[in-house]
TrEMBL record:
GO-annotated biological processes: signal peptide processing
Chemical reaction(s) catalysed: Cleavage of hydrophobic, N-terminal signal or leader sequences from secreted and periplasmic proteins
Species assigned in the record: Ornithinibacillus caprae
Gene: lepB
Positions of the Peptidase S26 domain: 9-176
Protein name: Signal peptidase I
Main location: membrane
Location in the cell: Cell membrane; Membrane
Molecular function, one GO term: serine-type endopeptidase activity
Keyword line: Hydrolase, Membrane, Protease, Transmembrane, Transmembrane helix
Family: Belongs to the peptidase S26 family.
EC number, UniProt record: 3.4.21.89
Amino acid sequence: MAKRNSEWFDWVKALLIAFALAFIVRTFFFTPIIVDGPSMLPTLHDRDQMIVNKFKYQINDPERFDIVVFHASDQKDFIKRVIGLPGEHVAYEDNVLYINGEAVEEPFYTEEQDDVLPYPGPTNDFTLEDLPGNYEVIPEGHVLVLGDNRNNSTDSRVLGVISMEQIVGTTSLIYWPFDRMQMVGK
């Protein structure tokens, strides 16, 4: 009888440790997310399932073109691409991205993608001053984000710059559906 109670206790202890580890990993390091909507087409598709790395930005700053997940509201997280970094001025003119007055190529954005987008066409011109907040440069601790499907994306053009406190983490691994399993990013 004592041996049976000992086995039972060992199983309960092992399950509690497993749940505790899963909770710690999900809370502090990695968590799944499901893409909701077409704003990141053609890079990410609606219902793609991804892993969010919550730890990376604890030791590194975001880089241009990282794909990030952030709290857009208390109820909703968005997935967008980092375009502008702190201290930079961002403008879009004639479908060209300008950072501090210099044209920057967007390697993930090609004219061929217009064939697969539900709302194809050029990105509407804007400057950082046109966005909510009317900043001349992106403030410290903030980034400017845009969806890859620029004509169907609620991003910094509507929300303004995003604070680092809003950012959950970065994502680059699509793990479901299997036929789309891949690393995405820059």
